[in-house]
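Quick check before the chapter quiz. The format below is the same one you will see on the exam, so make sure you can read both the input and the output lines.
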Amino acid sequence: MFNKILIANRGEIACRVIKSARKMGIKTVAVYSEADADALHVEMADEAVAVGPAPSAESYLVIDRIVQACKDTGAEAVHPGYGFLSENAAFANALDEAGIAFIGPPVGAIQAMGDKIESKKLAQEAGVSTVPGHLEAVADPEEAVRISNDIGYPVMLKASAGGGGKGMRLAWNDDEAREGLIGAMNEGRASFGDDRVFIEKFVQEPRHIEIQVMGDKHGNVVYLGERECSIQRRHQKVLEEAPSPFLDEATRKAMGEQAVALAKEVNYCSAGTVEFIVDKDRNFYFLEMNTRLQVEHPVTELITGLDLVELMLKVAAGEKLPITQDDVSLTGWALEARFYAEDPERGFLPSTGRLVRYSPPAERGGRVRVDTGVREGAEISMFYDPMIAKLVTYGDDRDGAIDLMREALDDYYVRGLNHNLAFLSHLVAHPRFRSGDMTTNFIAEEYPDGLTPDHMHPSDPNVLAAAAALIELRTDTRNRGIGGNGQSKGAPHDLTIFIGEEEPSELTLHVHEGDDTDRVVFADGSEIHIAIDWKPGRPLFEARVDDAVYIVQIDLTDSGYVLSHAGTRALVRVTESRLAHLQRYMPYKPPPDMSKFLLSPMPGLLVRMSVEVGQAVKAGEELAVVEAMKMENVMRAVSDGTIAALHAGPGDSLAVDQKILEFE
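Here is the expected output.
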């Protein structure tokens, strides 16, 4: 076994690898860019080596610097994590030439599976079911039309070297086939330096299900069950679970055996994932093979009881797999949610900033797992992937895993930047998701505009009102105690709760405080019983409401509380019922009219101003371009107008809602 390994990555996956290595008694070396000098993975490792400036192209992707770091520290092997150099054959070759082990598959397997056209041909040769299509590079738009008609619309045009949703176009007719080919070729050339595009049948009502395989250098390969990854946004996974609620045992076995056959075809060893598209009748077709550890590997670990990183290390050191296929069993259910720095209320635009408050949920007996590379005070920069953490829950069954996920999301307290925790709460509570009725189009169908104000209304105003009442009473009792004017429990309190801002709803209730449980009675005669363990100043209000766990996040405002629960958020004001009529006279102050301004929708860099003062613009015309998270976002005019003033210039760093320009 290795004495020391280097992790050629950053963030949560670097921390994840370090944990397994430490458990095995293996020393670790971290690499870091200038932006990551104070990162968690740097602190966790036994040694750390700086490899360059913040941009990954100048640090984490520079092969020579990673190899030199190994030589300088005596690292015998490299774990690449995922992304960056994890599927880079040139990197694996460079390590081999330097006498350093690559904790991953052979170079030949990386090369074969990295080319989508060649990988599909190999899959066919191995007897793996593939999507009907044309597996040669398409020459021109007219050939694309001919091939598409032969296959039958709809078709998917895919860049051969593509990944992460890049270089993909869906076509329903000849015109879209022509345009799609040009777009896919351009994107493939720009993103991967490869403009080859192939065409295959588009599977309608598709589910994305993948098989985890693990092989050693002695020809042994096993499959470790499947993961359901159908909840995606723009081809990027958001929720993953294991096992799939859709597969039966016969389909699972058939998919697993075909995945193993493909792995053996390319002499695969280490962890790998064979991805399939599955139709509504459980017909499955090979998509691609990822020759690395997947982001979503924790759900497989929880249902199999195996440490995949530990197995990768053992295999790379030449050991045989300690398990056979008969040893693999799937127990319970696991669900993973990807926690991103993005704003679902602004079309999922990326967010950057400092984690001013960061408190992950409790582990709950090992059934809640948080894989992260950040801590309170960390900076989420524009240079790297916006994923903050992976939240994973485990239950005896699917409902148990989902219920625990909903609770853990409420318990995840983060402030300082925009994030998708509320959106994740909505996803796991959605009736379609709960029933297992999902396709890769789920988010596009159910949340076409992201999170809207309608989604944010509290689903259970009575419980939220009761929580607000008890927060107010406990705070008042604390304040009276500080002032030497304590008040004993027991007397009922008559309160009116206003929920909302512009046209608030009103709830009148009576609170009967008890030693262990408080009883809240509403004007309509209904009542709930709440047992709480909360003290003023805590940002999380935890309670048991009629035997159900209920967690509310609290933010103070000048006029009351902003309470968040289960993906909803509301301004809540509490007043004594005898004074409630005065609250109704408080005028609503609408936000200022900013319709004459172009505002930055995200923190970022203004890379281009496309207009000048006095210029007349038409609806749809480009106004400016803002770069964030390595992506350019084009700002366009929503109506005809004339530019009155420019409030920013190229090279300026912009905050959210900062003025860029003004219309007359």
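If your answer matched, good. The longest strand covers residues 221-233.
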